[in-house]
Amino acid sequence: MSTTRRIRGENRFYNPPPMRKLQQEREKKRLEAEEIEKEKKKAKEILDRKIKVEEKEIKQPEECSTSDCSVPSRVSSTTTTTGTTSSNLGRFLDCTTPIVSTQHLPLTSSKGWRTREPEYRPYFLLNDLWDSFEEWSAYGVGVPLLLNGTDSVVQYYVPYLSGIQLYEDPSRACTTRRRVGEESDGDSPRDMSSDGSNDCRELSQNLYRASLEEKPCIGSSSDESEASSNSPGELVFEYLEGAMPFGREPLTDKISNLSSQFPALRTYRSCDLSPSSWVSVAWYCI
């Protein structure tokens, strides 16, 4: 026995493998807890700093007298903004609202002539809208939340497409059809769905026409003109998600799959679409 000890030696600090593994797991958990605590502390500092700035903006208009205040309109806007951003919902909307770069299109008269001093109508491409969700779809977007009025946490959310309906503006659609019949130059918004997307477009149009044909058309010409003015436009694309939340793919991946079948989903301009068009985005936490 003494010979064996002499050969192997004794180490009072020797830990068998199971004990060493347990210690490593404890150390790992401790480091993770410290990291989470640091993130909470940092988020709380950011939130406290933001709240202090908002409170300061509220106090400044209150301290100035009515004779010295030159911007009374700013007080109401500040208070309304503060009421929105100081809540969890307000912070969520601030973090998840996409920002898209706009372009400007010269407005024309009713006869198609440009005025001497053209007015510009802002619009954006749908592709730019989808690109604004790309990073959020891959990594999620962090939203600072306040729980129980004291605990600050950062919750991450990922966007998913719930549904979309695109209606073409009736007035622009009529102008486009006239151009195609007269010039056939292929520069109209109707030609955006090239590269094999005509089948998808024709299918959606046929479905929409079928739904219109089922309704009785009874009335005078004035009724018809009123109905056309109240029409949401021509339905050119529709998608409604039917899968359960855990079976869905992020918004960017879904748009990529849909646009491969309907390329105009990326090339449409907002000015070519009717105000009845809509997109529904669901946000799920990770």
TrEMBL record:
Residues 1-35, 57-86, 172-199 are annotated as: Disordered. Residues 76-86 have a biased composition (Low complexity). It holds the Pfam family DUF789. Signal peptide: none annotated. Residues 63-75 have a biased composition (Polar residues). Residues 22-35, 179-199 have a biased composition (Basic and acidic residues). PANTHER family: OS07G0246600 PROTEIN (PTHR31343:SF8), T15D22.8 (PTHR31343). This is Uncharacterized protein. It comes from Arabidopsis suecica (Swedish thale-cress).
